[in-house]
Amino acid sequence: MTVGARPVAVDGAAAPRRVTILGSTGSVGRNTLDVLSTSAVGGAAFEVEALTAYSNVELLIAQAKAFRPRLAVIGEPGLYGALADGLSGTDVAVAAGPDALVEAAERPADFVMAAIVGAAGLKPTLAAAARGAAIGLANKECLVCAGPLLTDAAGRAGATLLPVDSEHNAIFQVFDFDRPDRVRRLILTASGGPFREWSLERMATATRAEAVAHPNWSMGDKISVDSATMMNKGLELIEAAYLFPVAPENIDVLVHPQSVVHSLVEYVDGSVLAQLGAPDMRTPISYALAWPDRMETPSDRLDLAAVAQLTFERPDDSRFPALGLARRALEAGGAATAVLNAANEACVAAFLANRMKFLDIAAVSEQVLNLALSGKDPDTPKTIASMEDVLAADAAGRRLGEAAISSLK
Length: 409
Ligand code: NAD
Ligand code: MG
Prior knowledge:
Elements: E1 17-22, H1 27-38, E2 46-53, H2 57-67, E3 71-74, H3 80-86, E4 93-96, H4 98-106, E5 111-114, H5 122-130, E6 134-137, H6 140-157, E7 160-163, H7 166-174, E8 183-190, H8 200-203, H9 208-212, H10 221-229, H11 231-243, E9 251-255, E10 261-267, E11 272-276, H12 282-290, H13 304-307, H14 322-332, H15 336-352, H16 358-374, H17 387-406
Parallel strand pairs: 1-2, 1-5, 2-3, 3-4, 5-6, 6-7, 8-9
Antiparallel strand pairs: 8-10, 10-11
Helix pairs in contact: 4-5, 5-6, 6-11, 6-15, 10-15, 11-14, 14-16, 15-16, 15-17, 16-17
The structure holds nicotinamide-adenine-dinucleotide (NAD) and magnesium ion (MG).
């Protein structure tokens, strides 16, 4: 993997940069299009190569009409006809289904924004890495379930992984890649989510609407629920361990409810460098798109006097056990993080469908992780050496998760 090296894609600011967005109808995807339509790096406008979505065909059609990509892909095969009808008479090619998502990633865009949610984003992101693209990595589940495969593929092909997750983007901005041994620890900040001050009793009856109502960030439903359980910070801990040459025990988490300090790097001399900004994803998205340059964006500006106070506190493991689960899975290594990720995805989907209670998300995820680590489930692989292992670990985590969800009262 190339981290901290100049990506081929940014050569020659005069050339327009071609961008593909995987997951263009989501929160990160829409923010990326907003940046593309208002910003330019070195004065040269962006062009869109491909846009993909899963089921929001109306929005995909509207985006394709506005941005004129060469290709628009809908993940749900049954929606091919609707997409083709909506874009008939335009020069936008259309396709549908999981293989078409991979084809979209393989097309020769300079920059691929990986903004599909969940393990579904893995194959297209791997395809972009395998052809050496610059990748804006929003999808953290990719690294969590297939970290070694993704970093190896990127390394072999000379692809550049540019972190878009705000915490990792912040670390990327202040990490001294020339002297990684001078870094003592990374500190990931966490907002604490909507339930930061809730008791366990109150969380026990938390509704879907309460869980997705994030205090600072407007995001998709899945990551919003992950923020409420703090599994999001757990997944980010794993993500950081793959992105930066720092041992997992030297990656800490600090709750910072204002979401202004996006993360910090402590150096051996006691200096702590941080990146600050308003909680607006268009800033890290722009940074990844323009890197190693910077460009003007429509992002909200930080007014520190208006924020007035920045506060920090340690995470409360007893009310937010998901963070500890992620650390255990990271320390165990092998397939554990992929299994945990899949179990969590199954639980979040069940919670969003009102099929289980909020606190059971972490409880079921823990059960599945324990089972995976016990070695008692014969179909759970121990290590991740191939795509087959990733798929097997993902399937095992979902199967064990679903079984545990069904046995809940
Ligand atoms: P979202 O739910 O708003 O959008 C997800 C996108 O993925 C949509 O375009 C959807 O059509 C597509 N998609 C969903 N399932 C798919 C499938 N099976 N096949 C193909 N496409 C599929 O999600 P989001 O909040 O934009 O988050 C996207 C990713 O970025 C997640 O991994 C999340 O953790 C990460 N992230 C998001 C934010 C944020 O501000 N939203 C911040 C940091 C990281
Ligand atoms: Mg984040």
